[in-house]
Design a protein that fits this description.
Radius of gyration: 17 Å
Number of domains: 1
Order of helices and strands: EEEEEEEEE
Shape: globular
Distance between the termini: 64 Å
Oligomer: single chain
């Protein structure tokens, strides 16, 4: 019996509340899958809209690693991986009646088990991006 892979994502702030210009630090790790089955791992920081009308998304940060692109001293794509990125000035998280703007770290893995076909698994960890408060003089 095979289990679905486990994708763990940890952000540096437990409350997951960030302001524009903050540095987001993230770690992720893959479990419950054999190293040989791993084809690629993609990590992204992105925003997306939902609600009435067309949906939209934007990618702020992206990295992709494959077994071939990994360093020879650590070819295992399942290991704990760390990245940082400076968060942009917009768009800010928003939850309205007709529109939501949501931010997340997304980890997507492609695995090859029985046969030639690749299967994808995706896990999102949401967070809030807020405007820096204006300084009062």
């Amino acid at each position: 019996m095979q289990f679905d892979p486990l994708i763990s994502i940890r952000l540096d702030l437990a409350d997951r509340e960030y302001q524009s210009g903050d540095i987001l630090e993230c770690e992720y790790q893959i479990d419950a899958v054999e190293s040989e089955e791993m084809h690629a791992v993609e990590a992204a920081v992105l925003w997306y809209t939902s609600g009435k009308g067309d949906e939209d998304q934007g990618i702020h940060y992206y990295q992709r690693e494959t077994r071939k692109s990994r360093h020879l001293d650590q070819p295992d794509l399942r290991v704990l991986t760390h990245f940082t990125t400076t968060l942009p000035n917009s768009p800010f998280s928003y939850e309205g009646t007709n529109l939501k703007i949501q931010w997340c770290v997304r980890v997507r893995i492609l695995i090859q088990r029985d046969g030639p076909n690749l299967r994808e698994y995706i896990h999102d960890q949401g967070f809030q991006l807020h405007r820096l408060p204006l300084l009062q003089s």
